[in-house]
Amino acid sequence: MSSFALSAASVATRQIPAADETNDDALMKRIATGDQRAMQVLFARHNVRVYRFILRIVGNATVAEDLTSDVFLDVWRQADRFESRSAVSTWLLAIARFKALSSLRNRAGEQYDEDFVANIEDPADDPEVAMQKNDKAAMLRKCLELLSPAHREIIDLVYYHEKSVAEVAAIVGVPENTVKTRMFYARKRLAELLAAEGVDAAWAA
Question: What is the pLDDT of residues 133-186, one digit of tens each?
Fold first, then answer.
């Protein structure tokens, strides 16, 4: 692991500017000049979402932690290449997705094409689901895990990361119409799963 790899604990020990003190684009410009304080702020602002996004793909907390550090190491090294054509958060998730899928391929010991990887089911159990079976939020997480990886990814980006169709298309690397199609079938399938569990799923229909 690089000596630059950051952790939530190490960030917490430093006095960091308030989240709204400067925007992400300004931080990226500062990071490009070697400003480690700006890097710490960006990490503190985005590391949890990046980690959770990766974890949903790889299903392994240790791997997700390592890949999250790798994502921000790439940001440190490549900040001068960021051209503001998308939001910084979108750029981060695109890097995270690439690293997560690459990790799956490497762990399998084979090179799979994108369509094959998109249909690998994540067998990881969410301990919170097991502990809170009667909780609606836990039930939602359980049902999300039953979606195909491609559909789960779309729901994750749209609802949890609040990304637009255009942003999701940029992250996933597919046309916007494909995103819309996956979203339609993902919501339909999620509504069916929730209904089967006795949860009102009108919002997902």
Answer: 446 666 777 778 888 888 888 888 888 788 888 988 988 888 999 999 988 888
Looking at this protein, which amino acid is placed at residue 127? Answer: P
Last residue of a domain, one of 105, 121, 137: 121
- Residue pointed to by tokens 């339909």: 188
Q: 191 and 138, same structural domain?
A: yes
Q: Are residues 37 and 116 in the same domain?
A: yes
Q: How far, in Å, CA of 140 to CA of 117, rounded?
A: 24
Q: Which pLDDT tens digit goes with each residue over 88-122?
A: 999 999 999 999 988 888 776 544 444 444 444 44
* Residues 2/47, Cβ–Cβ less than 8 Å: no
Q: Are residues 182 and 117 in the same domain?
A: no
What single string gives the DSSP state of each residue in 42-95? Answer: HHHHHHHHHHHHHHHHH--HHHHHHHHHHHHHHHHHHGGG--SSS-HHHHHHHH
